[in-house]
């Protein structure tokens, strides 16, 4: 049996507001969860400022290395929205006003104050050769060029663009996961985790400690693309926790 | 007058749980906000899996490019905690058991179930030549080696390690910022933002749109290291918003 192909993606988050700490990023987790369902593994994330050189360098590093590159941020109407120019530069293509994007924006703004102003028309600019990603929420579309997918910075708009792409990208087997957790110090179960993972080659076990209400706990996540092996590994882990006399909760705490 | 030196940092977030979407990262915003106060600019963030090659490559790319590199995650007691080994490999130094870290852990675990087990002793391992970063919360220290600072993945522990480092790193002038916001479409003010920024060379203006309760709004953030120029730029921006008949709230909405 040939090993199934693994599809990998990177995410480039573009925006000063994340790097200043002003805005808490929500797109990493959103894109990560969505990719899991598509059978695509998010393998690397980078966050860079609204800076032409930084964006160009990251786009070229990531689009050549992974099957897919997603970007969020910098495709709005204001002066600090330079992602289209930067991606076009990275791809060595000119920026054009995309006729279909222009039509969408003309329709969207036709009854709105000021209509399709120059600033709004900026949102119809794409690297030449791009297709659009539908955005039912606020008109301005996302942009696809080859394996590069440009999406909004506002998480609710990004969600709509991801919904438009659902099921349309080639992926592999989705990674399945199961979790148990408890008020367990991970140092108590380190040997158990290591041995259990070793005995189940096609599974990975992650250990995620936390402190809550002044107490120490951890969740243990088993991941595999094979349902039967995942369940066998989780059963072995639970038997091991029983053997150590530790209480745990399926699904995690 | 010589331009003041700008100190720049990168953050490397290490952990499968962020890339799977299971855990929402909170360290990026936390480290970013802390660095601002230290007068250090967070310039790039990368997120990689608990994978030796990926960590080594990112550590070497980032530590050579920026004044400081911070890492979070992968310094606990379990088999998937490989950050110490990876950073040591990146620095081409061996991993040792740090005598002072060992003493801290012996003290911390002396009255606890099982005492200092082999698994717990893993948390005393450091790249050779490292200093420790104090962690009053859970004993196991962070690690400093040259310009690389290794911290925990659990945000509340990272917070304690950052507190231990406060005021100890050389930085430049902190970036100051002021915000106004309103139920304003950013496309209505794109020209105003561009012109205002152009007229105030030492300031940057960021525009951060959002959708809430079915309405469109935006916050506008002016940043500068110079208090007087920041205030002049903000005054000009507010005068411009007044001129357009737009209502806004100081501090943002």
From TrEMBL, chains A, B:
Pfam families from the UniProt entry: FLAD1_M, MoCF_biosynth
Database matches in Gene3D superfamilies: MoaB/Mog-like domain
CDD domains: cinA (cd00885)
Stored SMART domains: MoCF_biosynth
Domain MoaB/Mog residues, every copy: 10-173
PANTHER family: NICOTINAMIDE-NUCLEOTIDE AMIDOHYDROLASE PNCC, NMN AMIDOHYDROLASE-LIKE PROTEIN YFAY
Protein name: Competence/damage-inducible protein A
């Amino acid at each position: 049996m040939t090993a199934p192909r693994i599809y990998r993606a990177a995410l480039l988050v573009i925006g000063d507001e994340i790097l200043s700490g002003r805005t808490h990023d929500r797109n990493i987790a959103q894109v990560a969860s969505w990719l899991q369902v598509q059978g695509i593994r998010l393998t690397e994330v980078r966050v860079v400022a609204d800076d032409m050189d930084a964006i160009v360098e990251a786009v070229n590093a990531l689009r050549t290395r992974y099957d897919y590159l997603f970007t969020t941020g910098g495709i709005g109407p204001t002066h600090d929205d330079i992602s289209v120019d930067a991606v076009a530069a990275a791809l060595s293509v000119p920026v054009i006003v995309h006729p279909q994007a222009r039509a969408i924006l003309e329709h969207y703004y036709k009854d709105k104050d000021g209509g399709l102003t120059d600033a709004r028309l900026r949102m119809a600019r794409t690297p030449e050769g791009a297709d659009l990603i539908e955005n039912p929420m606020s008109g301005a579309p996302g942009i696809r060029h080859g394996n590069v997918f440009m999406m909004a910075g506002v998480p609710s708009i990004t969600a709509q663009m991801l919904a438009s792409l659902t099921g349309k990208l080639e992926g592999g087997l989705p990674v399945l996961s199961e979790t148990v957790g408890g008020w367990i110090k991970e140092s108590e179960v380190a040997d158990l985790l290591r041995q259990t993972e070793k005995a189940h080659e096609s599974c990975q076990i992650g250990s995620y400690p936390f402190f809550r209400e002044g107490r120490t706990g951890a969740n243990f996540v088993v991941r595999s693309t094979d349902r039967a092996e995942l369940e066998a590994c989780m059963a072995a882990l639970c038997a091991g926790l029983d053997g150590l006399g530790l209480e745990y909760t399926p699904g995690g705490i």
